[in-house]
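Reopening this one. Same input as before:
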Amino acid sequence: MPELPEVETIRRALASRVEGAVLERLEIMDPRFCAPAPPAELEAAVAERPVERLARRGKYLVWKLGPPAAQLAGAVAPGPVYLVLHLRMTGNLLLVAPGEATQAPHLRVRFELGTGDRVAFTDPRRFGTGVLLRGAEARDAYFAARLGVEPLDPDFTADALHALAAGRRAPVKAFLLSQERIAGVGNIYADEALFRAGIHPLRPVGSLRRSQLAALRDAVVASLEAGIDARGATIDDFRQPDGARGSFQDRFLVHRRAGEPCPDCGREIVKLRVAQRGTYVCEGCQTRPRPPRRGRPARAAAVF
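Same output, byte for byte:
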């Protein structure tokens, strides 16, 4: 699944080509993309609107679209609308230059711009979604109900992480994957961050000391920035808008490296199951938490 670095890679690659252009037409081939809204309704709502900004929130890509040119001459122009895309498991956005044929398998949606550029949304498993939100208030409410702090924003501090973790008994890996707490971190970057911080993924997040949470905060940021620098990780389907693969998979410290030696201590990396996800850990560098004492019942796992 594309995580924050992959979506940010897509945003940066597309922004210079789409911002300022007019989205002349949106063609939705797969109604699942916008269900339950009818495709024709969404297509009509975004047609002939200028792309004012291409933004990102967590794993979502946000197209800010201004009022249609035909309405700009009116005394009171309507406000912007936001087309919010989530790539889910296998979605990609590929840039097709003017004059090039759209040769993209699993094409679900096509954006046609006034510049002649087209953007093809491909999605083999058909889980990707598009939602239209009318106005900044609707956009903010949509994200407030789904997403927590942005880990690359100044608000993501050690103190903020301590406040989020306080009293929670869930494993720290599950905590990092909860988008309602920290937006954009998925399985790859949670594993890499926990290794960098020297924290076992099964440790209850509320049991971590302030110094450990500070190290985890820095490790999350460092792992995400490394992923962006490598233009994402291509394990299965992810491609950059020009079709190129990301390279972060060649720089993994522990993720998908079961059976290989730890880059720090040389001990064999193992694969566990944490929060229903395959999880990679060096139990030499990341000490496993002690089991509960005999005679004392284990506490129930916290529910997010």
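So the earlier flakiness isn't reproducible anymore. For the record, Helices lie at 4-18, 39-46, 136-144, 158-165, 172-177, 187-197, 210-229.
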